[in-house]
Amino acid sequence: MKETILNYVREMNHVTFAELGRHHPELLGEHSLFLPGHETIMLWTGWSEEAFKIVAQMLRGRELVMKPTYPMVYMMDGSVLNMPVATQIRKYKTTRWLPSILCTP
């Protein structure tokens, strides 16, 4: 699964979680990924726990980098989260979505 994710991001660069999941349905599941240290800022949902753990590992190992993006990028990929967008990195009273893309360093 790690090679699947890494190869797709290397090939396409600037990949949303939505696009990656659409092209690789084996990543899908029922878990969510939150910004580390910010339990109210969700990065994406609907993937397997294993897939999110692999992405987190690759981010920590600097095999991938994550950058914020605009919700419109996800709209163009055909999938957005139905929640308010995080406009700052801070603690929110309710869960917010931080649209992000995965890239190679």
Helix/strand layout:
Elements: H1 2-12, E1 15-16, H2 17-23, E2 28-34, E3 41-47, H3 49-60, E4 65-68, H4 71-77, E5 96-97, E6 100-103
Parallel strand pairs: 3-5
Antiparallel strand pairs: 1-6, 2-3, 4-6
Termini Cα gap: 19 Å
Question: Main beta sheet, described?
Answer: 3 strands, antiparallel
Percent of residues in helices comes to 25-40%
Alpha plus pi helix count: 4
Low-confidence stretches: none
Structure notes:
With 105 residues, this protein is α+β, with helices and mostly antiparallel strands. The chain has one domain (2-103). It is 35% helix and 25% strand. The strands form two sheets. It has a three-stranded antiparallel sheet. It has a three-stranded mixed sheet with strand order 2-3-5. Strand 2 (28-34) and strand 3 (41-47) form a beta hairpin. The longest helix has 12 residues, at 49-60. It is globular, with a radius of gyration of 13 Å. The mean pLDDT is 96.
Please provide a brief summary of the model:
The protein is an alpha+beta fold. The chain has 4 helices and 6 strands; from the N terminus they run αβαββαβαββ. A 3-stranded antiparallel beta sheet has the order 1-6-4. The chain has a 3-stranded mixed beta sheet with strand order 2-3-5.
Q: What keywords describe this structure?
A:
35% helix; 105 residues; 4 helices; three-stranded antiparallel sheet; alpha+beta; 6 strands; three-stranded mixed sheet; 25% strand
